[in-house]
Design goal:
The complex is a heterodimer of chains A (about 130) and B (about 400).
Chain A: H1 7-14, E1 27-33, E2 38-47, E3 50-59, H2 62-75, H3 80-84, H4 88-95, H5 102-125
Antiparallel strand pairs in A: 1-2, 2-3
Helix pairs in contact in A: 1-2, 2-5
Chain B: H1 5-9, E1 18-19, E2 22-23, E3 25-26, H2 37-50, H3 60-79, E4 87-90, H4 93-108, E5 114-118, H5 127-130, E6 138-142, E7 144-145, E8 149-150, H6 152-158, E9 163-169, H7 181-190, E10 194-198, H8 210-213, E11 217-221, E12 232-236, H9 238-243, E13 254-257, E14 262-264, H10 278-294, H11 296-315, E15 320-322, E16 334-339, H12 344-353, E17 356-357, E18 359-361, H13 366-372, E19 377-381, H14 388-404
Parallel strand pairs in B: 3-17, 5-6, 5-9, 9-10, 10-11
Antiparallel strand pairs in B: 1-2, 4-12, 7-8, 11-12, 13-14, 15-16, 16-19, 18-19
Helix pairs in contact in B: 2-10, 3-10, 11-14
The chains are: A alpha+beta (about 130), B alpha/beta (about 400).
Bound molecules: pyridoxal-5'-phosphate.
Chain lengths: ~130, ~400
Amino acid sequence: MSDIFQETILHHYEHPSNKGKIENPDVKISDTNTLCGDKVTMYARLNGRVLEEVKFDGAGCAISMASASLLTERAKGMSIRDVIELGQRDVLEMLGLESLTPMRIKCAMLGVRTLQKGLIEYESKKPV
Amino acid sequence: MSLDAERLREDFPILRRTFHGKRFVYLDNAATTQKPSCVIDRLSEFYRLYNSNVHRGAYTLAEEATDLYEKSRANISAFIGGKPEELIFVRGATEAINMVAYSYALARLEKGDTILSTEMEHHSNIVPWQLLQPHGLRLDFVKLSGKGELSLEDFKEKITRRTKLVTFTHASNVLGTINPASEFAKIAHDNGSKVLVDGAQSVPHMPVDVRELGADFYAFSGHKMLGPMGIGGLYAKSDLLEEMAPFQGGGEMIKEVGLDASTWAEPPQKFEAGTPNVAGSVGLSEAVDYLRRLDMSRVREHEKRLSAYALQELESQEGVRVFGPGDPERRGGVISFEVKGVHPHDLATILDREGVAIRSGHHCAQPVADWLGVSATARASFYIYNDHTDIDSLISALGMVRKIFGRRA
Ligand SMILES: Cc1ncc(COP(=O)(O)O)c(C=O)c1O
């Protein structure tokens, strides 16, 4: 059996959380996984240094879409710093997987890497 | 007599492997083919008994290696209807096309001249031409139409007085379409344009005669036709090879070297700077002998029959959409498809668990995916060692896909 396609992933692929756009977002950033052609756009609205609302849009494989969906749930209420510190282990944990092949890790990390890039850009633009 | 794929499988040690406890069903032959024992053994024999640099030493071993290298060239060139001196050894189709781009187009064409490619191409027949644009060469593309054929009307419209080179793939690595190469070549020649044909997906799968086709240049990869990786060929007509500038500079390709200037060796050496892939050439020559024994018309017939069966089986599956021409007469053994609601990568992962290796992605032909309106497709591609049972395995693995993504597919 294809254990990577377990319930959490299929559920989030078929019924994604927070899928859509945020009007006038503080962060809006798109990226693609050239290998698969996965595309995501991550949106965030901030309150100070805290992510108040997170959404995603895009199309791609079950792993990339489910992890983006899970990320929007997880990142809501987190600080910019904490989101930037999320790594592979956190993402695998969200997906409920022990490991993924190197090709599939890229799919899983697409959402979080994109959001992190957006937050870093946001920080660098903001006057201290 | 038709090919006995089950018997042929015995020649391919890798096909005895199992994956995830399942018989290995290899359906990614458009990417690369597996190697028969005779090719593997020939490579190792070369290194055990004949290894030496070529065109250099005066000792017996060096002469033997040179002889093997040149005999391989003659054998491989004859396989596609060329003369020995018309075949340049390269790494593969990509390098062959780049050689035409630099040594012919960039060196011989003038600013404002146009290269006419097509929307059906592999990236290797698009990007090398784009790299010439800053040098003033123009680039245009013949449109895809219908079920994935090149539009003849658009071709006739796009070809102009400034079109100096027409380049197109003989067979598509995504849609499976086999292009009417000689018809295209005739139109190009009537216009005074030279013709480059990308034969990466045709030489391995059907009888090819470069003269009959009317190709001025013909590119192919050894690894897609049972040969080793890192060896392939560029066929070019002798007068063009004379006219072309060297590709890379170095040893082997010179006649005399002074510190101010050098003169070039005669083709084909002129285009083979540095120590060549002698072992690769010997391995590819062995692969060519193997294919010749099978008979390329029988290879083509075998793949036609398999494609017809696969098309029929895939199309009868609910939620499956097959891309490309429907008529097996006009397509090769490459079938791209999608399963509704399942991303091709997820599909490939599930199939892998069933022992079935297919490709998913844009297959290095993003313009084709764009034309189809998809970001990726799943692709099954066949070769001599595949048979109906492999297609049955594919179909039954698709059942597993439906089971996992059942609520949607
Ligand atoms: C139609 C076509 N052209 C060119 C190539 C490039 O071949 P290689 O990577 O061996 O140079 C391929 C390989 O996928 C192909 O399918």
